[in-house]
Amino acid sequence: MREEEVEVAIKVVVVGNGAVGKSSMIQRYCKGIFTRDYKKTIGVDFLERQIEVDGEDVRLMLWDTAGQEEFDAITKAYYRGAQACVLAFSTVDRESFEAIELWKRKVEDEVGDIAMVLVQNKIDLIDDAVVHTRETEELAKKLRLRFYPTSVKENLNVEEVFRYLAEKYIDQLNSVVEEKVSPQKIGQDLMHNDVKNHNSDPHGRQVISLQPSKRRANKKKPFTTSVYCMLCNPLVKVGPVLSFLCGTLRSQ
Ligand SMILES: Nc1nc2c(ncn2[C@@H]2O[C@H](COP(=O)(O)OP(=O)(O)OP(=O)(O)O)[C@@H](O)[C@H]2O)c(=O)[nH]1
């Protein structure tokens, strides 16, 4: 695999009670439209959009999940593999606010600790609000989440929500890659002859546990700093992902 063929693709799930505006948010973000009609999502739906973060193409795959409990069994299956999540509630629906912690748990039960953001939608209806801003801020603080008030109708803050998640995920990805493939760490592993400890498949071969990021050619700035391939040739400079692959090929 060539380094240029690697791109970042992020699976984002949007969760929250029924009618808070999940489908509308995804439609607004991916298609630039807003409709007043309410059509309950049956199970799950999916749209995608490509954006640029730090000069790199990032593909966001947005999974719209049904808010009704009756679909829980189906929707949960689609949380798997998600790298980011929007927890949404509505300004005019108190129950949807009170359900946020439950939604967070449901997602974490399936995928663990991933990039998340708290979204209070329908902020255009603030005059009829049943949730105080103070309460939302307290919840965000308690759950340690960034909070965005949005109006899908007025196209307020929708772009910001998804950009924040993409940046947060990439930050996490970079710190994991740096931790896993720092030259010092590889050197230490070689000295202790335990390179296979990085991550092994059932046959003891090295595998990459990170979601691969696809990177396109001629980009301004890579997400991760390059490292030297200590396994094949310490003089060959390669990206961390390739460095791992070299190790994989060598151990096969
Ligand atoms: N005023 C206002 N209405 C909104 C906003 N966002 C969505 N709506 C409306 O809220 C209703 C429900 O929106 P949906 O996007 O279908 O809600 P959902 O969360 O996907 O609902 P489920 O599919 O049942 O889970 C629709 O009538 C939308 O037009 C907003 O920002 N402001």
Automatic annotation (TrEMBL):
The keyword Metal-binding does not apply. It comes from the Eukaryota. Pfam families: Ras. The keyword Transmembrane helix does not apply. Keywords: GTP-binding, Nucleotide-binding. This is Ras-related protein Rab-23. The gene is LOC101862468.
